[in-house]
Design brief:
The protein has 567 residues and is α+β, with helices and mostly antiparallel strands. It is built from 20 helices and 17 strands. The strands form seven sheets. It has a four-stranded mixed β-sheet. Helix 16 packs across helix 17, helix 16 packs across helix 18 and helix 19 runs antiparallel to helix 20. The longest helix has 28 residues.
């Protein structure tokens, strides 16, 4: 009997030790250090219950991925997306070898096309796949493909406190990736207000013309007329782009689009906005769209917008701005650091300034709001070491997302890439980096590394009020984002009510799966034809009727069923 009692006591004590060790692991920010260094360890128990999460793997483990490389991403020292300073860092720091199954330069949706071909042909999928959330159908197809696993349990078990608290700033970011109540993808967090629009205007042109920054559409038209037909730099009218916009694939994107024009008439296209009755409406069928299309047709006729606007994507709209032939370009607060910083290379005295969105006749102004999530991480159901991804990303959140004064990444991430040191040991940036600065955060496994949504705007507001930059985020904003960035952020925050968030963040609805591509096609075609004068303005009314009967009405019903379920 005594022997039996001893055995039972030993089992109870062993269980307590296991629970204690697991609790310590769960509370550790990045790894199982706390469990291994502070918890009393029974060797036999530790051998069977040690957390799979490591600081560093020895032997090294492999994470495979696939890359859709932004054409704007640059490399140096002969590196590529598959082999660069960040992939070497991952191996040295974590014992994680990042291997690329394939990569494509992501022009004309090449990445999405490659993924769809890979799915349809049964090709091997990567362990970790990062996909932008701008293509909901692609994400839905990937989730439904059976290649990828539920991730909520992994996140709950392995994500550290910094990452979890960042995700809690807007729990709705999980909604697009839910299936049968399970989380099938990890949202990639983005900075709040990161792509909320303002206008950038050539202040030197305004000064030479003795004009003030426009505050209404009517004033904006007067400015565009002067920029084109009385250009202060002496450019011929046919050489000037008064307003550089493009809508090749979308009227609601991250730079150079016209969505804010429709905002002046009370709607934002190509997203779901909440109406006065608290139900969701697709912005592109709102009556305000008709007024916005009429305005763009007028501007096209007068030569205020590019003749090739329907063929221009975001990067193309930046070209005349950088060349010094554009007077205005819409876009985010960070544009003075890129691409507008390069205008001075072509026009020495060019000065870009941020201004608030012009209002319509009834005082309305509007822009698309920035989601707290820019992409999603999918994890292969057959991944051998899924916890290794959390080793990598936990470190990013604790050390690189918002590094503090005196930390390892206080002045930059990779010496010789995003910063360097001069002869006196002081950090230098941008063109002062030998060989030029490169945006190394685009090399990381997850898009932009790691972002805490409210960190950047908080820092910008303090810099705009005159604070000396101290933290890494503050220094990065001050050194790498252009001198007008804090002021531009203040302009954004001067119109907080102008931001329209896309209120539908749920998964692709059933009707969307079969009808949405067609509905988007007829929308873009009709809008382009109206703007270019190929169809009369009343073609908008025909489009709305056709949109509704071709599946739009059913999609609206399904979207609102989802919206009711999450209110």
């Amino acid at each position: 009997m005594l022997s039996t009692v001893k055995k039972q006591l030993f089992l109870v004590l062993s269980l307590i030790l296991v629970i204690t060790a697991l609790t310590a692991c769960g509370s550790s920010k990045t790894n199982d250090k706390t469990a291994s260094s502070e918890t009393p360890v029974n060797n036999e128990v530790a051998a069977t219950e040690e957390s799979a999460l490591k600081d560093k793997y020895d032997p090294a483990v492999t994470i495979t991925t696939a890359w859709g490389v932004d054409p704007a991403v640059q490399f140096k020292n002969g590196e590529t997306i598959e082999n660069n300073v960040a992939t070497k860092w991952a191996l040295d720091t974590f014992g994680i070898e990042i291997k690329s199954l394939w990569s494509v330069t992501d022009t004309n949706n090449a990445f999405a096309t490659k993924l769809r071909l890979a799915m349809s042909s049964g090709q091997k999928m990567p362990d970790v796949l990062v996909v932008g959330n701008n293509d909901k159908q692609l994400v839905s197809d990937l989730v439904e493909s059976g290649y990828f696993r539920e991730v909520g349990s992994l996140f709950d078990k392995y994500a550290n406190d910094t990452w979890k608290k960042s995700m809690e700033l807007d729990p709705s970011v999980w909604n697009p990736y839910m299936k049968d109540g399970e989380k099938m993808g990890i949202p990639v967090l983005d900075y709040a207000y990161n792509n909320d629009y303002i206008l950038w205007i050539r202040q030197d042109w305004l000064d030479k013309l003795n004009m003030k920054a426009p505050t209404t559409l009517e004033e904006l038209e007067a400015v565009m007329e002067a920029f084109k037909n009385n250009n202060p730099d002496g450019l011929a009218p046919d050489k000037v782009v008064p307003l550089s916009i493009g809508f090749k694939s979308s009227m609601n994107t991250w730079m150079g689009d016209p969505s804010w024009v429709f905002g002046a008439f009370g709607t934002i296209p190509q997203q779901w906005n909440e109406g006065t009755d608290q139900t969701l409406e697709y912005g592109s069928v709102n009556p305000g769209m008709k007024q916005g299309l009429q305005k763009l047709n007028e501007w096209y006729t007068k030569g205020y917008i590019p003749k090739e606007a329907a063929l221009w994507d975001e990067n193309k709209t930046a070209e005349p701005a950088v060349a010094g032939t554009a007077g205005i370009i819409p876009g985010p607060y960070w544009m003075s650091g890129w691409p507008l910083v390069d205008t001075a290379k072509n026009v020495k005295d060019a000065v870009w300034k941020p201004i608030a969105l012009p209002m319509g006749a009834d005082g309305k102004a509007g822009r698309h709001g920035t989601s707290f999530s820019s992409a999603v991480v999918l994890i292969n159901k057959d991944m051998k070491n899924p916890e290794a991804f959390f080793t990598y990303e936990n470190y990013m959140y604790d050390n690189i997302a918002n590094p503090q004064v005196g930390s390892q990444y206080d002045i930059g991430i990779f010496k010789g890439y995003d910063y360097d040191l001069d002869a006196n040991g002081n950090p230098v940036y941008l063109d002062d980096v030998p060989g030029g600065e490169v945006n190394v955060v685009r090399y990381f496994l997850v898009r932009d590394g790691a972002r805490i949504p409210d960190a950047q705007m908080k820092a910008l507001m303090e810099l705009a009020d005159g604070k000396t930059p101290e933290t890494r985020v503050e220094k990065d904003l001050a050194n790498n984002f252009g001198k007008e960035t804090p002021a531009a952020a203040k302009v954004v925050m001067s119109q907080p009510d102008a931001s329209y968030m896309d209120m539908f963040t749920g998964p692709t609805t059933e009707t969307m799966k079969t009808k949405w591509d067609y509905l988007k096609k007829i929308e873009l075609q009709t809008f382009n034809e109206i703007i270019y004068g190929q169809k009369p303005l009343d073609a908008f009314d025909s489009f709305v009727a056709n949109w509704k009967k071709s599946g739009g009405e059913q999609v609206t019903k399904e979207v609102n069923e989802w919206y009711s379920s999450v209110k």
